[in-house]
Amino acid sequence: MMSQSGRHSDTGDGIRSWIQLALGGNHMTFPHIRTIYPSAPLRPYTPNMGMPSSVWFDRKQISPNCPEDLASIDEMCSSINAIVEQEVKNGIPRERIIIGGFSMGGAMAMYYGLRKSGLCGVFALSSFLNENSVVYESLKSDVSYPKMFMCHGGRDPLVDFAWGKRTFENLKSLGVEAEFHKFDNLFHEINKSELQKLRDWISATVPADS
After folding, report:
1. CA-to-CA distance for 144 and 45, rounded, in angstroms?
2. Is 188 a catalytic residue?
3. Is 156 among the residues known to form the active site?
4. Distance between CA atoms of residues 157 and 177, nearest Å
5. What is the pTM (predicted TM-score) of this model?
6. Out of 6, 66, 116, 155, which residue is the most buried by the measure of CB atoms under 10 Å away?
């Protein structure tokens, strides 16, 4: 699971604590699934006036209407792939691995997971892809896709709800098996109801007896 920069959730430990708080002290744990919370590295981040921030990639602005910074995106895809490959070496088949995150972390999960990764699922909470994203171009030439789960707050002031919904619609139009949930009164945050839906989706996507 991956996180948005510039808040108490800007590291793997931060997002773990946020989830623990939202669930009233319970972690997002499963008896048959190992959960990893990686942290984004420090890098200059243009929307933060170029200051070093814990972010997965750089962007010119927080908007779907600008070019993607493919150099930083692909660099992080390689880093995430190294984590996945280590899990595969540890005996976990790729088709039983899910990757996902919140905000920029969710976008990073889509950049990696929806581009010929061989994973079984991707989730993105309060996230979006840029128009004409490299992800869409990759999906046009693929034949099998991971399942996709998305949630978004209807009152999100940072990542507009319409951006997330548009991303979902684009993915569906390209053949991705996806579901989308709107939380009317949710801002740019995670709440208990959202996490419960995510738990149910994860349990159905990676069942204990498969």
Report:
1. 34
2. yes
3. yes
4. 28
5. 0.89
6. 6
